[in-house]
Amino acid sequence: MVRRISIDERAELLPEPPVAELTLTTVLAALADPVRLTLLRVIADAGDGPIDCGDCAAAAPDITRSESTISHHYKVLRDAGITRTHKQGRHRIIEIRRGDVEARFPGLLDAVLAAPGPGA
C-alpha cells in the first residue's frame, strides 16, 4: 500500500525544469518507458499527495530493477518535468507536477494514465 505523506518545510526541492521549458518530446520520451509509466501510475493511484519513492517502487511488484535503476527512472521523470522530488532526510518524496504538465500540455497526463498499460 502506498501512503501519502506530508513534506517537511525543511525538505530540499531537487532541481526541476520550469514549466516554460517543458517540451513535448522530452515528456513523451520519459513516458515511453514501461517502468517509468508504471511508477507514474502508482504515484497517480495514490492520490493527489506526495508519496515516498521507496513505497512507490514497492507497490509495483512487476518492476524488478535495482535501486539505482529505479532512481534513474525517477530522475528521468523529474528532468522531464513530470514529477517533483523533495529530499527529506534519507527519504525522497515524489509527486506528479499535474498542474504544471496540464498547463503546458492540456489533457496529456489524463490520456496517458487512462491508456491500457504494458501487455494489455
From TrEMBL:
<dbReference type="InterPro" id="IPR001845">
    <property type="entry name" value="HTH_ArsR_DNA-bd_dom"/>
</dbReference>
<dbReference type="InterPro" id="IPR011991">
    <property type="entry name" value="ArsR-like_HTH"/>
</dbReference>
<dbReference type="InterPro" id="IPR036388">
    <property type="entry name" value="WH-like_DNA-bd_sf"/>
</dbReference>
<feature type="domain" description="HTH arsR-type">
    <location>
        <begin position="16"/>
        <end position="116"/>
    </location>
</feature>
<dbReference type="InterPro" id="IPR036390">
    <property type="entry name" value="WH_DNA-bd_sf"/>
</dbReference>
<protein>
    <submittedName>
        <fullName>Transcriptional regulator</fullName>
    </submittedName>
</protein>
